[in-house]
Amino acid sequence: MFGNMGKMMKQIQKMQAEIARLQEELGQKEVEATAGGGAVRVVVNGKQEVLKIEIKPEAVDPEDVEMLQDLLVAAVNEALRKSQEMVAQEMSRISGGLKLPGLF
């Protein structure tokens, strides 16, 4: 019984080390999303941090600030969704498909 417990603890420690390594790697990986036909571009890393927002000059219309705001929201949300999807794929590789709530 204790042999199995020791083996399980080693597996858990190995998984923890892999998760820590993955978290570091995800901070370096980037995804991007655009809105308005590329008028707005957002880059997010695997830690769901917005790294860059690019706005083409033609997207800036002082008479229609709401449109630019909508484009920004759409691009940020899509970039975050892509980042979360990337994290989920990487985590399933480590956990063998096992859901580990609260890790990311």
Describe the protein:
- The chain is of the alpha+beta class and 104 residues long.
- It has one domain (2-95): Nucleoid-associated protein YbaB-like domain (Ybab, Chain: A, 2-Layer Sandwich), CATH 3.30.1310.10.
- Helices cover 54% and strands 17% of the residues.
- A 3-stranded antiparallel sheet has the order 1-2-3.
- A hairpin with a 4-residue loop joins strand 1 and strand 2.
- It is rod-shaped and about 70 Å long.
Number of strands: 3
Major beta sheet summary: 3 strands, antiparallel
CATH architecture: 2-Layer Sandwich
CATH class: Alpha Beta
Strand % is 15-25%
Could you give the distance between the termini?
A: 32 Å
Q: What percentage of residues falls in helices of 4 or more residues?
A: 40-55%
Unreliable runs: none
What structural category do the secondary elements indicate? Answer: alpha+beta
| Widest sheet, order of strands | 1-2-3
How would you state the average pLDDT, rounded? Answer: 88
The gyration radius over C-alpha positions equals: 19 Å
The CATH homologous superfamily is named Nucleoid-associated protein YbaB-like domain
Number of helices in the DSSP assignment = 2
- For the record, the count of structural domains works out to 1
Shape: rod-shaped
Layout of secondary structure:
Elements lengths: L1 H25 L3 E6 L4 E6 L4 E6 L9 H31 L9
Antiparallel strand pairs: 1-2, 2-3
Helix pairs in contact: 1-2
